[in-house]
Design a protein that fits this description.
Largest sheet of chain B: none
Mean pLDDT of chain A: 85
Radius of gyration of chain B: 22 Å
Distance between the termini of chain B: 50 Å
Number of helices of chain B: 5
Low-confidence stretches of chain A: 479-486
Strand order of the largest sheet of chain A: 1-2
Number of strands of chain B: 0
Helix content of chain B: 55-70%
Strand content of chain B: under 5%
Oligomer: heterodimer
Shape of chain B: elongated
Order of helices and strands of chain B: HHHHH
Strand content of chain A: under 5%
Number of helices of chain A: 20
Chain lengths: 486, 131
């Protein structure tokens, strides 16, 4: 019961905001309260799942293979908590004073709908529901893209929608084949039946699902919609997208990994895709001068790490992938928030035109340094533990080329972070550049909140990793996922 | 039945991919619709006659019933595809209203258009004045 209520809260908030149309300030307060409640709620879910309990909600009391089930295990709980945290901070960062009243009023309901869709995707025990929820997230992201109302947002949205729709079509076709051979789309049910299915069709069905999820996660040959769209969004929304929406594809891959284990070739493909994403993404990032574009190519690279660890097909590798996904969400979110403040202070996204001499510089530089070091994997921070786990998993599997790709990518990650640092924070003013000291005010709350979160996450890396390890084990323990037995 | 469905899927997919590779966005969107429907046919055909209807137990001994579940799936998927197509057509309309040709063009990078075209109201205002 409480699971369904939790799931419906963001939808109810969105409906309230749409029907009532309060002022920007009021709608901000409503959304903040709702997301604060969701954080506490999600924390209790994480705590309950921590004992190995699997929360199940059957809609209308129809038992598992017949009715729609929601199943929350450790993996789902972690991602739900992550989403609530990032939503809260994004709402804090999205200010009427900074981003305009209209942006705030228009952005809140789709953000809540996106949250609703993400919760659904993280909770569902059924592949068709996963499809519907992914589409819901995409539709709300299309709404969010149009909020700035510039020509660029319009022109860049269309390719993104076209590519994602093709991916959705692949998803549908994969579901069709899977239903044809497995007789069910309930994940737990499929896990028990997929072994008997004919090999060729199974490979085709799972291959289509993997291609669809790889597009949503933006792996290298399929990634180009992302760097084209993220710079056009309003910045806190882009931060939320970069933080969690690419992880939706990763989550879907993790969720179907017990099915994929019948087709090891898909794991191998994903591993190579991940390795090349890690390297090519960061190389593409190095060549960019637009800050958010640089950061979104970085996401391609970091998702590559996650998918490579996932593709090793070991429980430790999957645990490393989960941990790295959490770490990357927090860090990339922070970097986007810093990029937002820099953009508003400089009135441009172009690093070459940035000239940062404004109040709040110290806080911003500290937050950026913290996040950049975490991303690059400097020891006391979370990135170090994430990379250590990924490297160790790769090392243990004896994938030397993959390991070499990752280490190279790490070096370039540091280089690209130094590039931002040099242009945005360290540059002495050139030829008396025009400093429009106009109304660029600095709102440090969100950035400080995220810095604290990164430090906390780094300090609790051990327990979190244990949780991720337990989640990975639970994922493979088929009997731990009820809903299949009926 | 299966050969008919397979041929339809093939034709729809071929036409869809051809249109998807055209220069005009309008054709791309129509191609997308065709591809989506080809996939819907695949999903629909997974409930082939002789499949297991989930609400009927095998012991009930009722023969020749088509599985209703894929039909429910396809209904949902069609609605989603329709919503996406409508959104894309609305985007086309907004492009046309701004006097742009509806051709595939590279996404402009840099935020030059922010200065040249400062937050043009576009769709939203027209709708606002109408209501």
């Amino acid at each position: 019961m409480s699971l369904a209520l939790f799931f419906l809260t963001p939808l109810a908030t969105a409906c309230l905001l749409w029907l009532w149309r309060p002022t920007a300030r009021l709608s901000r307060q409503i959304s903040l309260i709702a997301s604060a409640v969701l954080i506490v709620w999600a924390a209790t879910i994480v705590a309950r799942c921590g004992d190995g309990e699997v929360l199940v909600h059957t809609f209308g009391n129809w038992t598992a293979p017949f009715g729609v089930v929601f199943v929350v295990d450790r993996l789902g709980a972690l991602f739900i908590l992550l989403q609530t945290l990032l939503l809260f901070v994004a709402l804090v960062a999205l200010r009427p004073e900074a981003h305009g009243e209209n942006t705030v009023i228009r952005a809140h309901p789709p953000l809540m709908i996106a949250t609703f869709g993400l919760f659904g995707a993280f909770m569902t025990g059924d592949l068709f529901n996963l499809f519907v929820m992914v589409e819901l997230v995409l539709v709300s992201s299309y709404m969010l893209i149009q909020i700035p109302g510039t020509r660029r947002s319009l022109v860049s949205a269309i390719p993104m929608i076209v590519i994602n729709t093709v991916a959705s079509a692949l998803f549908i076709a994969g579901l069709g084949l899977l239903y044809g051979i497995g007789g069910s789309l309930n994940i737990a049910d499929l896990i028990t039946h997929i072994g008997e299915a004919p090999g060729g069709l199974r490979l085709a069905a799972l291959g289509m699902l993997v291609a669809a999820f790889a597009t949503k996660a933006a792996l290298v040959p399929l990634c180009f919609w992302m760097p084209a769209t993220y710079p056009t969004l309003s910045a806190p929304v882009a931060a939320l997208f970069a933080g969690i929406m690419t992880k939706l594809g990763v989550y879907a891959l993790l969720r179907i990994s017990p099915l994929l284990s019948h087709e090891p070739v898909l794991f191998t493909t994903l591993m190579w895709l991940g390795g090349f994403s890690a390297l090519l993404g960061v190389l593409a990032a190095l060549s960019q001068y637009e800050m958010r574009r640089l950061l979104s190519f970085h996401s391609v690279s970091q998702v590559g790490y996650i998918v490579l660890a996932f593709g090793l097909q070991t429980v430790f590798g999957i645990a490393a992938a989960i941990f790295f996904a959490l770490h990357h969400s927090l860090v990339k979110f922070t970097l986007y928030l810093v990029a937002d403040e820099l953009e508003r202070a400089n009135n441009t996204q172009d690093l070459r035109q940035m000239d940062f001499r404004r109040p709040g510089k110290v806080i911003l530089a500290t937050a950026f340094g913290l996040a950049a070091f975490a991303l690059a994997g400097i020891p006391p921070l979370s990135g170090f533990f994430g990379k250590l786990a990924v490297f160790r998993a790769t090392f243990e599997s004896g994938e030397w080329i993959g390991l070499a790709l990752l280490i190279l990518a790490s070096v370039f990650t540091l280089a690209s972070m130094l590039k931002i640092w040099r242009f945005a924070f360290q540059r002495t003013p050139v030829d008396g550049a025009v400093v429009s000291s106009s109304a660029s005010t600095f709102y440090p709350t969100a950035v400080i909140m995220m810095s604290v979160l990164i430090v906390l996450f780094s300090l609790s890396a051990g327990p979190v990793f244990n949780y991720a390890m337990a989640a990975a084990e639970q994922l493979y323990l088929v009997n731990g996922l009820p809903g299949g037995g009926g | 039945m299966i050969p008919v469905v397979a041929t339809s899927v093939f034709l729809l997919l071929a036409a869809g991919v051809y249109l998807l590779l055209q220069k005009s966005w309008l054709r791309v969107v129509i191609g997308l619709g065709l591809i989506s429907h080809a996939m819907h046919l695949i999903l629909l055909s997974s409930g082939r006659p002789g499949g297991l209807a989930p609400v009927l137990l095998a012991s009930a001994g009722i023969e020749g019933v088509t599985d209703p579940l894929p039909q429910a799936f396809v209904l949902t998927a069609i609605v989603i595809a329709m919503a996406m197509t409508i959104y894309l057509f609305a985007a086309m309309a907004a492009l046309a209203r701004r006097g742009k040709r509806m051709d595939v063009e590279p996404v402009p990078d840099g935020d030059e258009d922010r200065e040249t075209e400062p937050d043009q109201p576009g769709l939203e205002d027209n709708e606002g004045s109408g209501s």
